[in-house]
C-alpha cells in the first residue's frame, strides 16, 4: 500500500510524542500534584511539557497535549542522581474521549543527564532551602511519615552515617552528583498492539544517540511507523519492521493481526498470564465479580504498567459486556479528586501516591467518601478487600476449577500465596468453603510445592498438585487409590530397613518441566492462553444467558421514537428470566440485571433491528448459536463393523442414490421418529421431576438422602419443562406469531371464549381468517344452545306455574333467595364450606397471570402460567381443555404436528398428570415482588361473635414479608386485601383496641386464601380477645396450618372450652416423649437444605399446635398448683413473675451465706457468679417482654419468653436457678418437672443440643425484641 493510498483513519500509529523538561520554562512545580514542599526537591514533581509531536494534527484524532503529557509522565517530571536506579520503564495508558471512545498510548520513561547549568543551580538552591528548613526544626510531619524511619534533625550527618539510605538518595550535591531528568517517548494509537509498541520504543531508545555507521536512522523508523504502516483488515495479518536492539543489526520483523469478528474474539494484546500469575485465580474471580456488579474498583501497584495490564485484562473478560463508567487505569496525580466520585469506576493508583493514607499496617486506607462498595486490590502483595454483601458468582467453584485446569494445561505459575488445588484443608479450614463465602482473601497460606522434596513428600505432593489429565467436569477418582497404593509401598520399604530420606522424588516420579521460551515463542503462547481464558469466561455468560432473547421486549415503534423514550421503557423481562434461574444464583443475577452494562447489551440487541450491530454482541450470539447447534449433536462411541456391500449396489445408478427427492412415506417416517423423540423426552423429564421431588420428601423421613443432595434445583427443572412445552407447541405450527407458541395458543383460546358471547364484536385486525372462522362457528353453536335452553325452560316453567299457582308466588321467591345465600335446610343438614372454591378454568388462571405487572414478554407469561398451573395441580387438566378444541387446533397446526397426534398427545397429558402426586410451590417462591390478592375469613364463636372494638390482622410469610396492621371492616367477617407476595404463610396476628361497650370477642379460627394459587391456610385460635377474660390478651399470635387440596375447611362449629391451665392432664412420660419429638424436629430442620426450610417454617415447629412451646407449657403445667379457692386461677406467667421478683431481691443482697441458704443450697463463689449472671438475664428478659407486650396476655408472654430464651440459648441454663427458688416449692408439687431431680435433668439435657444452632425467629414472634 503506497503512502498516498494510506488513509489517515487506518494508520498503525497516529502520533509520536516526546515529553520532558522545557529548559526555557525552567523548574516549575506541578501545583496540580498538591503541596509537596515537605519532601526533598528530588522527590518533588515538576511540570513537564510536550517537547515535540509528529504529525502536527490529525482530524479524526486531535492531539490532546494536556492528557498525553499527564499520562506519559503520570508522576510528573522527576529528577534523579547517579545514586538512583536509572533503568527505563515502559507503561501503556488509555484516554477516554467525551463520546466514550478510547485511544491508547505507550510511553517509555528514561532519564537524561541535565547539562544545563541553570537547572542544576536551581536544584542546588532548592536543596539548600530544604536543608535550612529541616535544620531549624520546621519539618512538617509528612516528611517523617514518608521516610518511615526516625531520622536525626542533622541531615548531612545522617547522610554520612547511611550513605545508601532513603534520606541520602534524596540529597543532591552539585559538586559531586550528576543530575538526571525524566523524559518520555510515546506512541498514540487507535488499537492496543502493546508488544509492537514496547519493542519499538525500547529499541528506539537503545539506538539513541545515533552513531555513525550503516543502518537506518531512528527518524526513518518513526516515519515508517507513522505514515507507511496501516492497521490490517479483519482476518488479515501484516508484517512490519521495528528498530533492532543494536544499531548494527538488521531491523526486526514483527507480525500483527486483526481478529475476524464474530468467529474470533476482539483484540487483546495484554498477557492474561501475568495477571493470573500475579493475583491468582481466586483474586481474579473476586475482582471479576466486583466489576460485573459495577462496584468501585481501585487497583494499587508500584508499577504503572501492571495497573494498566490488570485493568485492561479484567475489562476484556467482561465480553460481551463493556465497562461504561469511569475508566482510568492510571490515575495521574492531578486527577486524585476523581476518587471522590460517587459513581462506579475502575482506577489505578500508584503505591507511592499521596492519596494513600498510612494505616496501622502500612498504606492500606484510601481517602474515599465511602468504602462499603469499594473493591481494593493490592497487585504487589497480592491482596483484595471486598465490598460488603458481595453475592457469589454462579457456579463459582466449578468455574474456578475450570480456570485452574486451563492454567495447568498451559503451565502457568500461581502466586505463592494461592494453593494449587481447591478443597484441600488449609490450617484446618476447607479452602473450597472459604471461596464460596466470597469473604476470603488471596493472601492464604501457601499450598504449592517446595523446590526440593524427599520421597516422604510424594504423598503430600500428589495431593497438592493439579490433576492435569482430568477435565473439570469429570473429577479423577483413581487418585485416592494411587495414594493408598503408594503409601503401602512406602511402609513396606520402611519396614525392610531401606533409608529413603535422601531419595529425591523427582528421580522416582519425574515432572514435566516447562521449556524456556524466547520472546517470540512466549508471545505466541500468551496469545493462545488469552484465547483459552477468554473463551472460558465467555462460555459462562453464554450458558447463563443462553435463552436471553426470549425475554427481550422488542419495541413496536420506529428508531427515533424508541431512542427518545428509551430511558423510561422496560426492555427486558427480568422477573420471568429470574424465575428460570436456580435460587442460589438469583442474588447475583438480580443485581447484575440492574447494571448499566447489561442494559447496554439489551439496547444494542434492540438497535440491531435497525441495522446497527454491536461487535461484542455479534461475538456473543455467534457463540450462543454454536452452543445450540452442538447441543443437538450426539456423540456415539459404539464401534461399527463394516459390512460387505453387494456389487450391484456399488455399480448402481449414482444419480438415483443421490437424488434429493423425498417421498411422503419418508417424511411421515421422519416425523414419526421426531414425535416419538419428543414424547420420550417428556416422559424422562416428568419422571426426573417426580423422582427428584419425591426424593426430597423421602429425605425428610430419612430415606433417599442422596437424591436431594445431588439433584438439580427445582427451578431449573421446571424451566426445562417450560422449554419442552414451547418446543411441543412450536412443532408443526402453521404460522408463528410471537416468541411463545404456547402463549399464542392460550390467547387464541381465550379470545374464542370471550367472542363466543354475542355481546362482544369480532376484531378482524386481531384474528386470522382461520381463527375468525372458529370464532364464528363457536358463536353459532353458543346461540343455538342458548335458544334450546330457553325453549326448554319456558315449557318447563309454564307447567310448574300452573301446578303451583294455588300455593302462591312468594314461596318461589323465598326459595330463590335461599338458594342464592345458602338454604337453611342445607345449613342444618351438613356443614357448609366457609370459602367458596375458586374456578378451575384455564382462562381464570390466564387472567391472573395477565394481571402481573412484573412480566413483560409472552415467554414470561407462558412460564408464569405453567408454574401457576403446576402449583395448582391443574396443568394436565388445563392443557387437556386447551387441546380439546379441535377446531382451533386444526386451524393452527399441521396434520403432522405433535399436538395433533392423538395417541402421543394422550400419553403426554398422562405424564404431566403424574406431577400432581407432589406439591410444588414454583409460582409462590418464584415471583416475590408480585402483588397478589388474599381473602380473609374470620370465624368467631357463636358465643360472643360480635365486638365493638376496632379489630386488625397482620400476616407473615416465608418470603420475609409481613403486612402492616390491616383493619378488619365492620359488620363483615370476610374481606380481600392486596399485598406483595408473602410466600407460604406462617403466622397471623389478630387483635383489637379493646374499645366500646362489649369488646370481648371469642374467636374460633381464621382462614386466609391466596386468590391466585388457591392455597388456603387455617389459623386455629379458640381463645378470647379482651381484658378481664381468659388470660387478658387483646392480641394473639396464630400459627398457620395449610389446608390440603380437596379438603374442606371445617365449619364454624361451637368451639371447645377455652384452654386453661387445668384443662389438660398428661403423664410425665407422654410429655417427655412430646418434648423429645419437638427437639428432634427442630434439629432436623436446621440440617435441611434452604428450599426445604422455606416449606417447613421454624415458627410452626416452635409455636404450632404440637410445637415446642405447647409441649413446654405442658411440662410447666405438670404439678402446677393453679387452682385457687378464692380469686382467679393462676397462669404459668404468674409463676414466672414471682420468680423474677425473688431473683431481683437476691440480686439486691450481697452473696452471703444467708442468701445462699435462702436458695436452698451451699455452693462456691464461682457457682454463685454463674447463677447471678443467669438471674440478671432472666430479669432483663422479663422486663423487655413486659415493656413491649402490653397487649399480650399471660400465655402470649409465656410463648414470647420461651422463643426468646431459646434464641439466646438461655432456657436450659435458667431451669436449675428457677427450681431452687421458694416460689417453686410453694407453687409446684413434688412430682413436677421443676422439683423432681430426674425430670429436671431430662428437661435440661433435652434442650441443651439446641445450643449448636443459630435460631432465627420471625419478627412476628419476637415483637421487635
From TrEMBL:
RUN domain residues: 712-928, 1099-1262
Subcellular location as annotated: Membrane
GO molecular function: guanyl-nucleotide exchange factor activity; small GTPase binding
SMART domains reported for this sequence: dDENN, DENN, RUN, uDENN
Disordered: region residues: 135-156, 791-841
Residues annotated as domain UDENN: 30-612
GO cellular component, one term: membrane
Signal peptide: none
Pfam family, one: dDENN
Calcium found in the keyword field: no
InterPro entries: cDENN_dom, dDENN_dom, DEN5A/B, DENN_C, PLAT/LH2_dom, PLAT/LH2_dom_sf, PLAT_RAB6IP1, Run_dom
Keyword set, alphabetical order: Membrane, Repeat
Predominant place of localization: membrane
Keyword Membrane: yes
Stored PROSITE patterns: DENN, PLAT, RUN
PLAT domain location: 932-1039
Basic and acidic residues biased stretches: 801-828
PANTHER family, per database record: PINSTRIPE, ISOFORM A
UniProt family annotation: Belongs to the RAB6IP1 family.
Record-given protein name: DENN domain-containing protein 5A isoform X2
Organism: Spodoptera litura (Asian cotton leafworm)
Amino acid at each position: 500500500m503506497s503512502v498516498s493510498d494510506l488513509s489517515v483513519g487506518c494508520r498503525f500509529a497516529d502520533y509520536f510524542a516526546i515529553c520532558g523538561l522545557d529548559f526555557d520554562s525552567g523548574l516549575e512545580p506541578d501545583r496540580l500534584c498538591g503541596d509537596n514542599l515537605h519532601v526533598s526537591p528530588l522527590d518533588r514533581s515538576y511540570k513537564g511539557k510536550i517537547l515535540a509531536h509528529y504529525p502536527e494534527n490529525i482530524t479524526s484524532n486531535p492531539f490532546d497535549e494536556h492528557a498525553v503529557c499527564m499520562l506519559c509522565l503520570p508522576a510528573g517530571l522527576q529528577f534523579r542522581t547517579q545514586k538512583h536506579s536509572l533503568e527505563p520503564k515502559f507503561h501503556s495508558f488509555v484516554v477516554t474521549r467525551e463520546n466514550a471512545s478510547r485511544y491508547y498510548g505507550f510511553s517509555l520513561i528514561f532519564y537524561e543527564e541535565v547539562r544545563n547549568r541553570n537547572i542544576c543551580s536551581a536544584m542546588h538552591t532548592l536543596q539548600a532551602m530544604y536543608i535550612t528548613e529541616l535544620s531549624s526544626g520546621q519539618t512538617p510531619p509528612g516528611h517523617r511519615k514518608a521516610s518511615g524511619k526516625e531520622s536525626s534533625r542533622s541531615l548531612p550527618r545522617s547522610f554520612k552515617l547511611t550513605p545508601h539510605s532513603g534520606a541520602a538518595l534524596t540529597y543532591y550535591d552539585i559538586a559531586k552528583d550528576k543530575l538526571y531528568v525524566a523524559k518520555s517517548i510515546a506512541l498514540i494509537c487507535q488499537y492496543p498492539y502493546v508488544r509492537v509498541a514496547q519493542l519499538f520504543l525500547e529499541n528506539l531508545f537503545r539506538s539513541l544517540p545515533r552513531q555513525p555507521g550503516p543502518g537506518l536512522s531512528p527518524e526513518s523508523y518513526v516515519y515508517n511507523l507513522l505514515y507507511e504502516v496501516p492497521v490490517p483488515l479483519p482476518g488479515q495479518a501484516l508484517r512490519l519492521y521495528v528498530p533492532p536492539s543494536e544499531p548494527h543489526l538488521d531491523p526486526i520483523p514483527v507480525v500483527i493481526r486483526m481478529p475476524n469478528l464474530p468467529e474470533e474474539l476482539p483484540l487483546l494484546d495484554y498477557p492474561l498470564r501475568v495477571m493470573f500469575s500475579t493475583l491468582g485465580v481466586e483474586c481474579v474471580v473476586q475482582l471479576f465479580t466486583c466489576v460485573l456488579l459495577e462496584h468501585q474498583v481501585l487497583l494499587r501497584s508500584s508499577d504503572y504498567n501492571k495497573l494498566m495490564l490488570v485493568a485492561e485484562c479484567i475489562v476484556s473478560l467482561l465480553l460481551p459486556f463493556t465497562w461504561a463508567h469511569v475508566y482510568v487505569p492510571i490515575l495521574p496525580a492531578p486527577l486524585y479528586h476523581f476518587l471522590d466520585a460517587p459513581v462506579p469506576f475502575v482506577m489505578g493508583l500508584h503505591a507511592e501516591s499521596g492519596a494513600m493514607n498510612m494505616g496501622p499496617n502500612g498504606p492500606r486506607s484510601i481517602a474515599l467518601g465511602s468504602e462499603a462498595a469499594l473493591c481494593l486490590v493490592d497487585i504487589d502483595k497480592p491482596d483484595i478487600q471486598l465490598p460488603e454483601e458481595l453475592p457469589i458468582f454462579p457456579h463459582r467453584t466449578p468455574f474456578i476449577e475450570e480456570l485452574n485446569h486451563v492454567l495447568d494445561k498451559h503451565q502457568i505459575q500461581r502466586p505463592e500465596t494461592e494453593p494449587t488445588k481447591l478443597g484441600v484443608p488449609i490450617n484446618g479450614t476447607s479452602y473450597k468453603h472459604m471461596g464460596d463465602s466470597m469473604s476470603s482473601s488471596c493472601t492464604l497460606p501457601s499450598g504449592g510445592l517446595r523446590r526440593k522434596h524427599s520421597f516422604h513428600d510424594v504423598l503430600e505432593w500428589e495431593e497438592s498438585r493439579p490433576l492435569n489429565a482430568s477435565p473439570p467436569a469429570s473429577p479423577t477418582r483413581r487418585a485416592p487409590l494411587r495414594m493408598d497404593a503408594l503409601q503401602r509401598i512406602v511402609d513396606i520399604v520402611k519396614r525392610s530397613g531401606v533409608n529413603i530420606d535422601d531419595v529425591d522424588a523427582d528421580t522416582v516420579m519425574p515432572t514435566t518441566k516447562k521449556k524456556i521460551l524466547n520472546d517470540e515463542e512466549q508471545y505466541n503462547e500468551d496469545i493462545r492462553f488469552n484465547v483459552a481464558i477468554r473463551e472460558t469466561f465467555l462460555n459462562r455468560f453464554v450458558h447463563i444467558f443462553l435463552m436471553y432473547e426470549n425475554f427481550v421486549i422488542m419495541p413496536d415503534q420506529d428508531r427515533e421514537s424508541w431512542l427518545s423514550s428509551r430511558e423510561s421503557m422496560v426492555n427486558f423481562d427480568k422477573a420471568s428470566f429470574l424465575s428460570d434461574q436456580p435460587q442460589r444464583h438469583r442474588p447475583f443475577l438480580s443485581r447484575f440485571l440492574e447494571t448499566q452494562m447489561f442494559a447496554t447489551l439489551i439496547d444494542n440487541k434492540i438497535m440491531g433491528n435497525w441495522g446497527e450491530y454491536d461487535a461484542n454482541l455479534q461475538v456473543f450470539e455467534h457463540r450462543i448459536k454454536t452452543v445450540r447447534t452442538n447441543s443437538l449433536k450426539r456423540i456415539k462411541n459404539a464401534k461399527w463393523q463394516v459390512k460387505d456391500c453387494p456389487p450391484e449396489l456399488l455399480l448402481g445408478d449414482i444419480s438415483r442414490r443421490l437424488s434429493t427427492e423425498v417421498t411422503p412415506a419418508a417424511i411421515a417416517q421422519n416425523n414419526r421418529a421426531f414425535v416419538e423423540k419428543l414424547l420420550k423426552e417428556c416422559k424422562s423429564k416428568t419422571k426426573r421431576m417426580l423422582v427428584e421431588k419425591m426424593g426430597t420428601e423421602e429425605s425428610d423421613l430419612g430415606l433417599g438422602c442422596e437424591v436431594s443432595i445431588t439433584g438439580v434445583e427445582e427451578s431449573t427443572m421446571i424451566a426445562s419443562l417450560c422449554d419442552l412445552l414451547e418446543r411441543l407447541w412450536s412443532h408443526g405450527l402453521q404460522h408463528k406469531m410471537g416468541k411463545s407458541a404456547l402463549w399464542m395458543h392460550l390467547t387464541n383460546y381465550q379470545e374464542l371464549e370471550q367472542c363466543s358471547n354475542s355481546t362482544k364484536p369480532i376484531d378482524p385486525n386481531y384474528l386470522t381468517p382461520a381463527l375468525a372462522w372458529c370464532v364464528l362457528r363457536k358463536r353459532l353453536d353458543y346461540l343455538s344452545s342458548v335458544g334450546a335452553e330457553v325453549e326448554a325452560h319456558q315449557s318447563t316453567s309454564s307447567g310448574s306455574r300452573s301446578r303451583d299457582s294455588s300455593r302462591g308466588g312468594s314461596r318461589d321467591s323465598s326459595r330463590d333467595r335461599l338458594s342464592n345465600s345458602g338454604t337453611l335446610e342445607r345449613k342444618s343438614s351438613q356443614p357448609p364450606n366457609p370459602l367458596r372454591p375458586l374456578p378451575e378454568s384455564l382462562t381464570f388462571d390466564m387472567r391472573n397471570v395477565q394481571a402481573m405487572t412484573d412480566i413483560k414478554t409472552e415467554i414470561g407469561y407462558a412460564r408464569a402460567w405453567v408454574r401457576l398451573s403446576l402449583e395448582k395441580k391443574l396443568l394436565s387438566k388445563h392443557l387437556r381443555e386447551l387441546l380439546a378444541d379441535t377446531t382451533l387446533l386444526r386451524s393452527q397446526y399441521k396434520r403432522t404436528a405433535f399436538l395433533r397426534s392423538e395417541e402421543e398427545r394422550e400419553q403426554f397429558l398422562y405424564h404431566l398428570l403424574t406431577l400432581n402426586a407432589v406439591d410444588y410451590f414454583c409460582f409462590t417462591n418464584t415471583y416475590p415482588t408480585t402483588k397478589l390478592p388474599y381473602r380473609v375469613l374470620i370465624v368467631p364463636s357463636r358465643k360472643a361473635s360480635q365486638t365493638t372494638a376496632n379489630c386488625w390482622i397482620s400476616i407473615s410469610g416465608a418470603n420475609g414479608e409481613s403486612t402492616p396492621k390491616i383493619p378488619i371492616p365492620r359488620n363483615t367477617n370476610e374481606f380481600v386485601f392486596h399485598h406483595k407476595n408473602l410466600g407460604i404463610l406462617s403466622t397471623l396476628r389478630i387483635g383489637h383496641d379493646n374499645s366500646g361497650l362489649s369488646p370481648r370477642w371469642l374467636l374460633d379460627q381464621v382462614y386466609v386464601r391466596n386468590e391466585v394459587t388457591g392455597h388456603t391456610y387455617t389459623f386455629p385460635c379458640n381463645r378470647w380477645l379482651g381484658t378481664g377474660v381468659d388470660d387478658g390478651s387483646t392480641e394473639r399470635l396464630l400459627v398457620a396450618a395449610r389446608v390440603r387440596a380437596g379438603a374442606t375447611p371445617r365449619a364454624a362449629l361451637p368451639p371447645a372450652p377455652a384452654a386453661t391451665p387445668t384443662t389438660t392432664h398428661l403423664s410425665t412420660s407422654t410429655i417427655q416423649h412430646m418434648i423429645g419429638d419437638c427437639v428432634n424436629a427442630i434439629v432436623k430442620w436446621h440440617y435441611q437444605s434452604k428450599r426445604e426450610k422455606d416449606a417447613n417454617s421454624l415458627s410452626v415447629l416452635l409455636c404450632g399446635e404440637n410445637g415446642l412451646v405447647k409441649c413446654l407449657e405442658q411440662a410447666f403445667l405438670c404439678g402446677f398448683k393453679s387452682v385457687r379457692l378464692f380469686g382467679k386461677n393462676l397462669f404459668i406467667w404468674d409463676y414466672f413473675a414471682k420468680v423474677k421478683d425473688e431473683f431481683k431481691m437476691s440480686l439486691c443482697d450481697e452473696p452471703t451465706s444467708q442468701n445462699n441458704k435462702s436458695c436452698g443450697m451451699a455452693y462456691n463463689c464461682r457457682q454463685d457468679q454463674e447463677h447471678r449472671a443467669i438471674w440478671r438475664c432472666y430479669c432483663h428478659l422479663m422486663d423487655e417482654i413486659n415493656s413491649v407486650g402490653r397487649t399480650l396476655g399471660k400465655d402470649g408472654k409465656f410463648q414470647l419468653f420461651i422463643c426468646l430464651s431459646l434464641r439466646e440459648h438461655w432456657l436450659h441454663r435458667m431451669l436449675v436457678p428457677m427450681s431452687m427458688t421458694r416460689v417453686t416449692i410453694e407453687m409446684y408439687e413434688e412430682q413436677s418437672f421443676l422439683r423432681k431431680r430426674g425430670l429436671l435433668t431430662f428437661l435440661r439435657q433435652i434442650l441443651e443440643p439446641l445450643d449448636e444452632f443459630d435460631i432465627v425467629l420471625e419478627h412476628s414472634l419476637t415483637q421487635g425484641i
